[in-house]
C-alpha cells in the first residue's frame, strides 16, 4: 500500500506540474497575444503614414519583447490595409521535462484589416418648420463635419446624395429632367407616390411619375394675389431645397446643406423613398445622363451599383425632429381641364379667324386686323368695326409686323404690337389691383355664369362675357396663379355656397400620418432586405417620430438608431462615422 501510495503521489505531482507548466505557457501566450492585437489594430489603420512593421516593433519594444519576436506581413495600398502577425511563444517546462518535454511552444497570430470599400450614401435630412433656429444650425454643422470626414482621401470611392425633405421632396430642374413626369404643368418638380411604390427601393425605367400639382392652400385671401405664380406653393418653383445627387465635392455638398431653410410639414416617407432610389441600380441610366451633362463626376460611371456587390456598401442616414403629417395634392378633377372660369379683357382683342394685335397705346378702343380694317371692343363687350384708321393716331402699329397664325399656343389675350402672343398675367384676376379683366364663373346651381368686372355689380349671363373671345382658364393655370383661399373668398364671393366649395376644397389629403408611417416602414424594410445599412436619428422628436425612426432602423439593428434628446445631432453623426470606419480584427 505504501508503494502504491507513493506511485499515486508521483502521478498527482506530475499532473499538477503539467497543469502549472500549461498555465505558465498560456500566461506567456496571452501577454504576447494582447500585445500583438493592440499592435495590429494600430498598424492596420489606413491613416498611418509609417510602415506597419515599424509600428508593430514599437509595441513589442514597449512590452519588453525583442523586435524580431514576431513575423509581420504589412499591406497598405491607400484603399485597403492589412497587417498580419505570427509568432510562437516558448516556455521552459518545470515538470513536463520529466516526461521528455523541455519546452512548450504555443502559436500566436493576429490580423487586422481596414477596407476602404466603395460607398454610396444618402443623407435624408429634415427641413420642416420645426427644424428652424438652432436645430437647423446644429444639423448643418454636424452633417457638414460628417461629410468632410467621410470624403477625406476617399473622393474616388464615395458618392453622397443629399435629400432634404419637408412635406415634399424637390427634385430640382436637372434631376427632374431625367425622369418622365406628368405634364399638367412645368412650374415645379415634386412628385407623389402611391402606397405600392414604397415596397421597392428603386424606380423602374420608363415609369411616369405623378407630378405634384402647383397650388397654394396656405395663402390667406387677405394676403392678396401677387403677380406671377402663387406665393406659397406645395412645391417650390425654384431649386431651393432640391436633391443634390451623386456628388463627391465637399465644397458643393456643404454649401448645399448650408443653403437649406426650414418650413412646412413633414413627410419622412417621401424623403426615404428618394434616398433609396438614389442608391438603387434602377437609376443608373439617370446617373449616366447626368455624368454626360457634366453634373456628376465620370469616375462614378456604373453607379449606383447592384445591391450586395462585393466591396460596396450602401448606406442611408435619416434624421428627423418631428413626425409624419398630412400631404396634399389637387383632386384629379382639378388637375387639368377647364376650370369653369372664363377671362376676357377689352384691352386685348382676341380673334380666331383673323390675327391682329392691340394698339401701341393699348387703350383698348381699337385695333388693326390683318385686312387693314380698324376695329375694337366697346366697354360693354360689344364689337364695333370701322373701315379706316383713327385719324388722331391713337392706333399705332408696325405695318411690317406679321402676326402668327391662330390658334396660338397657350392662353393668350391677343398679340402685342410686335405680333407676339400675349399671355395673361396673374394680376388680371385681382380686381383690387386695378385690372380690367372680366371674369365669368360658371355656377352649376344657377346654370349660368356670374360675371365679375371692375366697377360693376355682379350679374348672371347665359354665356361668358366676351362671347367667343373669352378664354376658359385651365385648372393647372388657375391654381398655379391664385391661392385656393383667394378663389373661394374673393373671386367666387357671392356665389352659391355649393359652387364655391369646388374651389375651396380643390385639394385633398393624399397621405395622412398613419399612411405615411406605413409607407416609411415598407420602404425601410425593402432597404434592409436589399442589404442597405440604415442609420436613423431622432432629434428631440415626439414619440411618434422616435417610433418611426426606430422602426426604420429595424429591430435587429437597435444600435443604428440614435435618440438625441438635446438639439445637437453631432454625437450621433460621430457614432455613425466611427461605425462606418471601424477596424475589423479578423483573427
Q: What's the structural blueprint in terms of helices and strands?
A:
Layout: H1 2-43, H2 52-62, E1 71-76, E2 80-92, E3 103-115, E4 118-126, H3 134-151, E5 158-165, H4 173-176, E6 180-181, E7 191-192, E8 208-211, E9 244-247, H5 250-258, H6 268-277, H7 284-292, E10 312-320, E11 327-330, H8 332-335, E12 338-344, E13 356-358, E14 367-369, E15 374-377, E16 383-385, E17 412-415, E18 421-423, E19 438-443, E20 448-452, E21 459-461, E22 471-474, H9 475-481, H10 484-491, H11 497-504, E23 507-511, H12 513-529, E24 533-539, H13 543-553, E25 561-564, H14 570-581, E26 584-585
Parallel strand pairs: 4-5, 4-10, 6-8, 10-24, 24-25
Antiparallel strand pairs: 1-2, 2-3, 3-26, 5-9, 7-8, 11-23, 12-19, 12-22, 13-14, 14-15, 15-16, 17-18, 19-20, 20-21
Task: Report on this structure.
There is one protein chain. The chain has helices spanning 2-43, 52-62, 134-151, 173-176, 250-258, 268-277, 284-292, 332-335, 475-481, 484-491, 497-504, 513-529, 543-553, 570-581; strands at residues 71-76, 80-92, 103-115, 118-126, 158-165, 180-181, 191-192, 208-211, 244-247, 312-320, 327-330, 338-344, 356-358, 367-369, 374-377, 383-385, 412-415, 421-423, 438-443, 448-452, 459-461, 471-474, 507-511, 533-539, 561-564, 584-585. It is of the alpha+beta class. The protein has three domains: 2-115, no CATH class; 124-330 and 510-585, Rossmann fold, CATH 3.40.50; 332-508, no CATH class. The strands form seven sheets. Strands 9-5-4-10-24-25 form a six-stranded mixed sheet, sandwiched between helices. Helix 3 (134-151) packs parallel to helix 14 (570-581) and helix 12 packs parallel to helix 13 (543-553). The two termini are 52 Å apart.
Amino acid at each position: 500500500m505504501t508503494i502504491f501510495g507513493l506511485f499515486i503521489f508521483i502521478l498527482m505531482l506530475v499532473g499538477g506540474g503539467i497543469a502549472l507548466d500549461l498555465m505558465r505557457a498560456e500566461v506567456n501566450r496571452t501577454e504576447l497575444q494582447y500585445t500583438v492585437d493592440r499592435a495590429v489594430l494600430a498598424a492596420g489603420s489606413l491613416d498611418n503614414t509609417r510602415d506597419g512593421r515599424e509600428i508593430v516593433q514599437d509595441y513589442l519594444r514597449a512590452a519588453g519583447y525583442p523586435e524580431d519576436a514576431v513575423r509581420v506581413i504589412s499591406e497598405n495600398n491607400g484603399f485597403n490595409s492589412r497587417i498580419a502577425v505570427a509568432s510562437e511563444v516558448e516556455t521552459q517546462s518545470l515538470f513536463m521535462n520529466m516526461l521528455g518535454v523541455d519546452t512548450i511552444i504555443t502559436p500566436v497570430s493576429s490580423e487586422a484589416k481596414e477596407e476602404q470599400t466603395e460607398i454610396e450614401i444618402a443623407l435624408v435630412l429634415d427641413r420642416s418648420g420645426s427644424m428652424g433656429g438652432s436645430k437647423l444650425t446644429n444639423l448643418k454643422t454636424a452633417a457638414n463635419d460628417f461629410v468632410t470626414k467621410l470624403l477625406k482621401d476617399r473622393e474616388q470611392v464615395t458618392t453622397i446624395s443629399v435629400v432634404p425633405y419637408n412635406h415634399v421632396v424637390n427634385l430640382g430642374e436637372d434631376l427632374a429632367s431625367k425622369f418622365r413626369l406628368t405634364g399638367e404643368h412645368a412650374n415645379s418638380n415634386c412628385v407623389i407616390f402611391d402606397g405600392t411604390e414604397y415596397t421597392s427601393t428603386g424606380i423602374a425605367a420608363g415609369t411616369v411619375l405623378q407630378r405634384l400639382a402647383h397650388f397654394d392652400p396656405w395663402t390667406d385671401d387677405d394676403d392678396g394675389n401677387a403677380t406671377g405664380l402663387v406665393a406659397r406653393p406645395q412645391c417650390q418653383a425654384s431649386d431651393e431645397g432640391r436633391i443634390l445627387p451623386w456628388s463627391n465635392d465637399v465644397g458643393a455638398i456643404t454649401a448645399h446643406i448650408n443653403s437649406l431653410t426650414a418650413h412646412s410639414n413633414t413627410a419622412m416617407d417621401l424623403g426615404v423613398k428618394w434616398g433609396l432610389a438614389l442608391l438603387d441600380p434602377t437609376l443608373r441610366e439617370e446617373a449616366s445622363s447626368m455624368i454626360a451633362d457634366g453634373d456628376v463626376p465620370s469616375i462614378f460611371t456604373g453607379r449606383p451599383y447592384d445591391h450586395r456587390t462585393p466591396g460596396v456598401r450602401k448606406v442611408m442616414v435619416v434624421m428627423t425632429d418631428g413626425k409624419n403629417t398630412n400631404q396634399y395634392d389637387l383632386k384629379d378633377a382639378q388637375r387639368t381641364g377647364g376650370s369653369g372660369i372664363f377671362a376676357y379683357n377689352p384691352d386685348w382683342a382676341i380673334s380666331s379667324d383673323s390675327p391682329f394685335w392691340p394698339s401701341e397705346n393699348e387703350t383698348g378702343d381699337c385695333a388693326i386686323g390683318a385686312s387693314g380694317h380698324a376695329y375694337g371692343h366697346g366697354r360693354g363687350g360689344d364689337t364695333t368695326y370701322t373701315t379706316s384708321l383713327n385719324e388722331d393716331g391713337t392706333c399705332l402699329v408696325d405695318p411690317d409686323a406679321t402676326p402668327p397664325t391662330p390658334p396660338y399656343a397657350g392662353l393668350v389675350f391677343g398679340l402685342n404690337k410686335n405680333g407676339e402672343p400675349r399671355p395673361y398675367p396673374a394680376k388680371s384676376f385681382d380686381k383690387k389691383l386695378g385690372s380690367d379683366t372680366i371674369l365669368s364663373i360658371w355656377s352649376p346651381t344657377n346654370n349660368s355664369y356670374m360675371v365679375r368686372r371692375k366697377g360693376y355689380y355682379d350679374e348672371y349671363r347665359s354665356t361668358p362675357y366676351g362671347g367667343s373671345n373669352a378664354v376658359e382658364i385651365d385648372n393647372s393655370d388657375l391654381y398655379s396663379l391664385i391661392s385656393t383661399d383667394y378663389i373661394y373668398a374673393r373671386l367666387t364671393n357671392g356665389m352659391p355656397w355649393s359652387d364655391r366649395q369646388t374651389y375651396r376644397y380643390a385639394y385633398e389629403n393624399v397621405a395622412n400620418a398613419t399612411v405615411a408611417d406605413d409607407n416609411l416602414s415598407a420602404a425601410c424594410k425593402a432597404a434592409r432586405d436589399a442589404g442597405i445599412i440604415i442609420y436613423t436619428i431622432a432629434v428631440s422628436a415626439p414619440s411618434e417620430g422616435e417610433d418611426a425612426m426606430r422602426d426604420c432602423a429595424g429591430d435587429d439593428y437597435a444600435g443604428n438608431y440614435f435618440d438625441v434628446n438635446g438639439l445637437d445631432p453631432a454625437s450621433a453623426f460621430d457614432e455613425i462615422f466611427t461605425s462606418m470606419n471601424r477596424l475589423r480584427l479578423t483573427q
